[in-house]
Amino acid sequence: MNDIFASLESEVRSYSRTWPTTFDKAGGSWLYGEDGTPYLDFFAGAGALNYGHNNPLLKRKLIEYIERDGVTHGLDQATAAKREFLETIDEKLLKPRGLDYKVQFPGPTGTNSVESALKLVRKITGRESIISFTNAFHGMTLGSLSVTGNSMKRGGAGIPLVHSTPMPYDNYFDGQYPDFLYFERLLEDSGSGLNEPAAVIVETLQGEGGINSSRPEWLRGLRELCDKHGMLLIVDDVQMGCGRTGPFFSFEEAGITPDIVCLSKSIGGYGLPLALTLIKSEHDVWEPGEHNGTFRGNNPAFVTASEALKLYWSDDELQRGTIAKGERVGQVIGEIADKYEGGVAKGRGLARGLGFEDPEIAGKISKAAFDRKLILETSGPQSEVIKIMPPLTVSDEELEQGLQIIVDSVQAVLA
């Protein structure tokens, strides 16, 4: 790699250390180095590229919009691109699912959506405390960090992160105790010291936390607990929404309706920055301008987002393909986990993980895969899980190619 990255860019960079190549082009499921070397991408921009790199159908709409001098920067002004996006959201996502949500544009990234959700639930309820879960990840700004579990990331705040309390995520105790035993006891005990929570924030499948998937019955129990104690339910679908687990929303399988949903990453379709906060209509109590941001109206992203919803969410073809491909990934990593002591297969849809007791193994496998021209991320509190997240549009042939590289890489490390 060019020394300019080491000499001028901040030491905070991370992915460029994991994959020490200078990339220049990308298309579909592939990234290409400056020398033309192809790398199969099972990372997909941390879930921001569900429809692949430079999706040609989305690219055409974007180029046409730019060439006709469509509005690029529009704050929260009414634009034709925003109107089309809102109409498409209503037609393709909300009405078919019977969802009554208002759409807020909080800023361009996932943490902006989470911050707006945390502020809003406190305004609605008049309460301060937020319940989060072990191994959660919700973003890197202070409010989002306060409900994030990772100690290294929390430590970067430099100040106490308050007004939030972690509770055990599904299966945190390996099924030894009834669901919500501790949580519900604290809520009902006036001597517990737990302030009345405004809301609970949850990922139905924890991506950064180690590909930890919650059961539908656990999520339904959480919804009931929130209703019983007057807490709002926020689902952070930033990484696992937009079809990553199969259905568009990751909570659909559980049959629950959150009070607030956070979306970002692949909602923009093309990898352009965009975030949404979906708010039940009765909870939309914002004053005009009470939460805003300079880049909350990313009109080029509205264009590609609208086209992605029309192309991929007018029927269930993508959803069925994601589930089928996910089952194939699950089969292969399940066989690997059975073969090697301490291995565990995790996840659902096309968010899959292969975990190991020795936290160094996942990193070694990721490196071995990169040497074989496959891009894999690790996740979990000790980076002990290989995270497998190809674009949802990955072909069957590309999927098999990547899975074979994973098999070979595991064998090279553990043989």
From TrEMBL:
Gene3D superfamilies: Aspartate Aminotransferase, domain 1 (3.90.1150.10), Type I PLP-dependent aspartate aminotransferase-like (Major domain) (3.40.640.10). Keywords: Aminotransferase, Pyridoxal phosphate, Transferase. Pfam families: Aminotran_3. This is Diaminobutyrate--2-oxoglutarate transaminase. Pathway: Amine and polyamine biosynthesis; ectoine biosynthesis; L-ectoine from L-aspartate 4-semialdehyde: step 1/3. Its cofactor is pyridoxal 5'-phosphate. The keyword Transferase applies.
